[in-house]
Amino acid sequence: MANKKGKGPGSNAIALNKKARFEYHIDETFEAGLALAGWEVKSLRAGKAQLTDTYILVKNGEAWLLGSHITPLNTVSTHEVADPTRTRKLLLHRKEIARIFSRTQDKGHTCVPLKLYWKGSKVKCELALVTGKKIHDKRATEKDRDWQRQKGRILREHNKT
């Protein structure tokens, strides 16, 4: 069975945007396909993708992924001009694009990718409509994460004895 949590062995995740979960409150998520070139799929199979500082732009009724970085493999870069940071089209239903567009027009809302992953032989992108966190919210997130880590240590120590 595939590991759904993260980038461990047997996981279907290609790249995670951990910074987005720390910086934003996630309101709503969507699943989108990606229009990719052949060399990009090969690079994704090798796990050479980054989603940090990436965002979604809706223009002319189409959704685009901006700022993602897919590093080309050495074998590809010899015979093809590969742009690792090119703008990639997201494949969504018209209603989903309209919803994303209307929500991103509101003050304080934006759309960011959370994860690239495999679904069968297709590459999918999990997007989220988000609002920014305040500093005290970030502190609370960090405090909760530390408590979960500490609780895990206590339970492991208790189970050993």
Tell me what you see in this structure.
The chain is 32% helix and 34% strand. The protein is α+β, with helices and mostly antiparallel strands. The chain has a single domain (13-134), classed as Beta Barrel (Small Protein B, Chain: A). It has a seven-stranded antiparallel β-sheet. A two-stranded antiparallel ribbon has the order 3-6. A hairpin with a 2-residue loop joins strand 4 (55-59) and strand 5. The longest helix is centred in the last third of the chain and has 26 residues, at 135-160. The mean pLDDT is 86. One of its GO terms (molecular function) is RNA binding. One of its GO terms (cellular component) is cytosol. This is SsrA-binding protein. Belongs to the SmpB family. It is found in: Cytoplasm.
List keywords for this structure.
alpha+beta, SsrA-bd_prot, seven-stranded antiparallel β-sheet, Small Protein B, Chain: A, SsrA-binding protein, globular, 34% strand, 32% helix, 161 residues, RNA-binding, single chain, two-stranded antiparallel ribbon, SmpB
How many structural domains are formed by the residues?
1
**Residue fraction in strands:** 25-35%
> What is Rg?
18 Å
What is the average of the pLDDT values?
86
**CATH fold naming:** Small Protein B, Chain: A
User: Would you report the number of β strands?
Assistant: 9
Tell me the CATH architecture: Beta Barrel
DSSP summary: helix tally: 4
Order of helices and strands: EHEHEEEEEHEEH
Protein name: SsrA-binding protein
Keywords: Cytoplasm, RNA-binding
InterPro entries: SmpB, SsrA-bd_prot, SsrA-bd_prot_CS
Main location: cytoplasm
